[in-house]
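Write out structure tokens for Phosphoglycerate mutase family protein.
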Amino acid sequence: MPVTEILLLRHGNRLQWTLNPVTGEYSSNHPFPTGLPADPPLASFGVRQSQETGAYLGKVLGDLAKQDRLRIYSSLFYRCLETLRPTVETLNEITSSATTRKNIRVRGERGIGEWFGRAWFIQPKPAEPSRLRRDFFPWLDDTYTSLVVPPEHGERIDPLHDRVARALAMVVQDVDREFIEAGRGEEEVTLLLCGHAAQIIASGRALTGQIPDDHDEDDFKCFTCGLSKFMRRRVPADGEVYYDDDWRNTGGVAGGWDCLLNSDCSHLSQGQERGWHFHGDESFDSYEVAAALGVKTSHGSVPPSKL
């Protein structure tokens, strides 16, 4: 059973952005590192949260990293990678093997990226991995290609859950295959995934197969820099799929998982901060009439056809 444990980490407290749903324009009062207005860095408080998280995960994951039994995935939005920075740097300091350091490079998976809701305009996407690695995060694996990419106009809540479920199943299957093909199929592997509030709630539901009738139910928590832990029940048998469209009724993706920690914040000096849960479907379809005004993209430009 290669992947036995999944840790979900929400990014730290971030700076804010605003959206004008009539024009589809995202903006901010602060210059963001990537220049994308819906891609903020951490606030100073979030930086401290990430440092405390890095110190904690360095101890928890240190031996796994040394033994090459850890793989790290993240949303490609800046705030998630910035949250992981202290953790990755700590793990690199305590591992001496070049191979091990290469294997704990962060794999940017857009399937576990942010949820912006369904819109008539094009929703934000992160900067390209090559740029993120070159300019900001040298430990990002820019050779990795996302297994799942969100639709460019976003999605409603149910499709969001399906997107996250599919991404999780494919990531687990990919790592299972990686270790089996290397002749290490009996080793136990941990995945650390850093993402966003809505995605973490959807992840808990997809892994356990426990999804409430009301999406707004406050079941899986997602405090900033909170850690959730899931243990795998079983590996799918030969010929059994990791992802099924009916995952809601099959006990969870990739064999099913049990939740042992639900956004634990005991490693943070200030404890639980900025909890979040769904508040109805987030959709901007009702503003579609404004499309005639010209769609502004996430970097602030107007498509030539509208000029």
